[in-house]
Amino acid sequence: MRTREEQIADLANLFGEEGTFSFVDDLDAATKHVLEAERRAEQRVRAEIARDSERLDWLLSHSHYGIPGFDPVVSGRTPEKRRDDLIQAIDAEREVG
Q1: Which of 51, 75, 70, 50 is nearest to 60 (CA)?
Q2: Quick check: helix, strand or coil at residue 9?
Q3: Mean pLDDT lowest for which of 27-36, 40-49, 59-68, 86-95?
Q4: Are residues 42 and 73 in the same domain?
Q5: Alpha helices of 19-97 — where are they, by DSSP H?
Q6: What tens digit of pLDDT does each residue of 39-77 get?
Q7: CA–CA separation, 22 vs 27, rounded Å?
Q8: Which domain holds residue 85?
Q9: How far is 30 from 18, CA to CA, in rounded Å?
Q10: What is the pLDDT of residues 5-24, one digit of tens each?
């Protein structure tokens, strides 16, 4: 993956080939394009995390016998604590993965 600066320089060069803007305008336009792309990527990640949370909430609310490996029936843990345990396990795996 290229750095932000590399992407901006590449775009500025592409814009400059057309000869329509000055170098400063090219650099400014390229910077805006890259920053907007980063913002959209962050929004997609946040949306995916929200969908994961919704799936997790659904799974825990529809699971009468627990989730394998979390065994809430035997442990006597509340649904809220089971959810927290599962979220922590998923977050820990994301950090490793």
Answers
A1: 70
A2: helix
A3: 59-68
A4: no
A5: 23-61, 72-75, 79-96
A6: 999 999 889 888 887 877 777 676 655 555 555 555 566
A7: 9
A8: 63-97
A9: 14
A10: 888 888 877 776 655 556 66
Q: Tokens 């803007």 — which residue?
A: 21
Residue with tokens 């509340």: 78
Q: State the sign of the Cα–Cα–Cα–Cα dihedral 8, 10, 16, 20.
A: negative
Total domains in the fold of the chain: 2
**In this structure, which amino acid lies at residue 50?**
A
Q: Which amino acid is at 62?
A: H
Rg (CA), the chain: 23
Tokens 């995916």 sit at which residue?
48
**Tokens found for residue 69:** 């490996």
Q: Which residue has the tokens 């920053």?
A: 35
Same domain, 41 and 67: no
> Which of 7, 51, 44 has its CA nearest to residue 29?
7
